[in-house]
Each structure stands twice: as structure tokens, then as C-alpha cells.
Specification:
43% helix, 142 residues
């Protein structure tokens, strides 16, 4: 397991996920990976499937995939999202996260990225009274 975030920082990220998901039927996960081969987007896509994020009811999961050792990350959205949004949909989420990461504020960057992703998802996948939390809110590790 990667010891990148302190316990309190993990709790802040989980709280941000829960806050974001309270506004949308979308499911947001944060995953930290120790290492990978190839492109970060390919590794993130494989992890998206391995975490069963492609099996949500509306296929509207979002994975924020972070590799601290390589200082890389990717944002991957489900098929249901990409059928409704333009190709650069995640650009501003990435930019907000990068801004904080450059200053060494990783927890804040992830929290702000999660909250912005939730706001963006709300436009296309608003929260419904019968929504269920389909995926865990905890950070996953690989």
C-alpha cells in the first residue's frame, strides 16, 4: 500500500467525494497506484475496469488515478459521461488539480478536483431521490 496521504488527509478526500456525490448520480473514486508500465491513461483505463466502475447503472463513474512516484495522474470517465460531454470535459478539473499539485498541495488538489468533477457531473447526471451509492467512497490503492 502507498503511504502518500496521512489518515486525516484521506478523510478530507473521502468527505469531498461524499459531498460531490450528494449532488450527482455519478460515482467518483480516487485511486493511488504505486507504478505502471506504458501510458498513464491506459493504466487508468485498466484500473477503471478492475474497480468495476464501468458497471454503474448510468455508466457515469469517474476515476481520478494518481501515480505519486511518477508525478502523473489521469481522469477517466465512464461511457455514459462521454456520450453527453465534449472531449475536453475534464480539462478544467485537471488544471485545478495541477495548480495545487505544483505547489505541493496534493490533498487540496484532489479535494478540489473531486468537488469540481461533482459539479460538472451534476449538469448531466443530477442526484435523484432513488440514487444509491454504487461504489465505495474510500481511496483505493494498487
Amino acid at each position: 500500500m502507498i503511504n502518500f496521504f496521512k489518515k486525516e488527509e484521506e478523510q478530507r478526500i473521502i468527505a469531498a467525494i461524499r459531498e460531490a456525490e450528494s449532488q450527482t448520480s455519478g460515482e467518483i473514486r480516487v485511486h493511488l497506484e504505486k507504478d505502471f508500465k506504458g501510458k498513464v491513461e491506459d493504466a487508468a483505463t485498466k484500473t477503471f475496469a478492475r474497480l468495476r466502475m464501468d458497471r454503474t447503472a448510468d455508466n457515469n463513474g469517474v476515476l481520478i488515478f494518481i501515480v505519486p512516484s511518477k508525478k502523473q495522474f489521469a481522469i477517466i470517465g465512464g461511457k455514459g459521461i462521454h456520450e453527453k460531454v465534449p472531449p475536453n470535459f475534464w480539462q478544467d478539473v485537471r488544471d485545478v488539480m495541477q495548480h495545487h499539485f505544483r505547489d505541493g498541495n496534493y490533498t487540496e488538489g484532489v479535494c478540489q478536483g473531486v468537488l469540481l468533477a461533482g459539479q460538472k457531473l451534476k449538469e448531466h447526471f443530477p442526484w435523484q431521490s432513488d440514487d444509491e451509492n454504487e461504489l465505495p467512497d474510500e481511496i483505493s490503492y494498487g
